[in-house]
Every structure is written in C-alpha cells, then in structure tokens.
Amino acid sequence: MKISFFLSIFVFNFVSLALAKDQPISISTDTLVTEDGKVRIYLTLKNDGQRAIYDI
Q1: DSSP assigned state of 9
Q2: What is the pTM of this model?
C-alpha cells in the first residue's frame, strides 16, 4: 500500500476575526491536501456587522 488512508488527506481549518472599515468580519479558510499533492484553499469572508461592506 502506497500510503495509508489516514495520511492521504489532510484538512486544516483556520478562523480569524478582522475589521474592514470598523466592521467586524470573520475570515475562515479550509485547506485540503490530497494524496497526489494537490492543494485546495477555500476562503470565506462573513460580514458580522450591520452594514454592507463594499471594500476590504
């Protein structure tokens, strides 16, 4: 067996809080590394404030 299933996929989650023009936003990333070395990073920005944010 080339590599065990446990080591074939590595998932890392990161959550942070940032400010965009005095508005709180949550920043989270989901990272996936497959057994053939491909890396996928998914970035999510969530507006936790009450007003719309047009520039970050």
Answers
A1: -
A2: 0.49
Burial of 7 (0-12, 13-18, 19+ CB in 10 A): exposed
Nearest one of 30, 32, 33 to 42, comparing CA atoms: 30
One-letter amino acid for residue 39 of the chain:
V
pLDDT range class, residue 1, cuts 50, 70, 90: very low
Q: How many residues does the chain have?
A: 56
Alpha-carbon span 36 to 39, nearest angstrom = 9
Residue written as token pair 């023009």: 21
List pLDDT tens digits, range 39-55. 999 988 888 878 777 76
Which pair of tokens denotes residue 35? 């057994």
